[in-house]
Design a protein that fits this description.
Strands 5, 6, 7, 8, 9, 10, 11, 12 and 13 form a 9-stranded antiparallel sheet that branches. The chain has helices at about 20-30, 45-55, 65-75, 100-105, 110-120, 145-155, 155-165, 165-175, 235-245, 250-255; strands at about 5-10, 35-40, 60-65, 90-95, 125-130, 135-140, 140-145, 180-190, 190-205, 225-230, 260, 265-275, 280-300. The chain contains 10 helices and 13 strands. α2 (about 45-55) packs across α3 (about 65-75) and α9 runs antiparallel to α10. It is elongated.
Length: about 325
Amino acid sequence: MDASSWFLILNGKAAGDEALREAVAAQREAGRRLAVRVTWERGDAERYVREAVAAGATHVVAGGGDGTLREVAGALAGTDRDAGALPALGVLPLGTANDFASAAGIPEAPADALALIAGAAPVAVDLLRLRADDAVHWCANLASGGFGTRITLETREGLKKMLGGLAYFLTGIARLGRIEPTPARLRGPGFEWAGDFIALGVGNGRQAGGGQALCPEALIDDGLLDVTVVPELSGEVAATIGAVVSEGKAAALEQVAARARLPWIEIESRQPLPLNLDGEPVQARHFRIDCVPGRVRMALPADSPLLARTREPHAQPLQ
């Protein structure tokens, strides 16, 4: 009999998943106390996290996509408790793209994902804290702006249901002829950049928008955020698309992007700038984004590519 107590906070869109129901039943039959809470409207995830903390839960599982993970992780981070006094965070990928889970190596099948959570020793991981117009937002995966943000916001729900992450790619291709650059100034310790960009990524995780690896070397336990800025390409667009096809997205990114690894960054724009925090659109003229080290504990594969301990140390800042 396992003494652990779990709260599964489940996005309402996934409530009818039969494989999920079977996986939950299997965990209960194994002796695990597992309560399911289904989100329906804004604020539900935060309320359920408070309930889980008050009940002394050992684990809170975010069942859904990257947006659900952001809500649950942010609700945990918004408490006045240290990471060690909070339930461990598990990820059950049930969304359209599941960018964080994909990069972290979390299995897609509900039974396998729950088994991973049951067997993993939780590790302390970072979160991004974003301040905009006196409001505080939390982000577990990646804050993005520019072209990629517009793709994510404009991809229709029906298309996502039919095609999954491919829907973002098709929407992006449709927009190639009308990419509008965004003027901004970025600064952080030892790093400054100013100009017009078409894509911006500030990563705790590595990818967004259905597999677009804006921050391909980001780690979630190094106390640093990864920044990637793709400037206005003008005549280089064709060459960059050619590099995507022939050498892969990482090669194209290396050709054109400015990159850095920093503990914090400030972003300023003369006009309101929209950022996408794992599905949450936030708009302001000034942002301050901090990497908050070890803010929550998360159940991850021991060999997850997002963990610094699985890789040799790398130099920073990356520019």
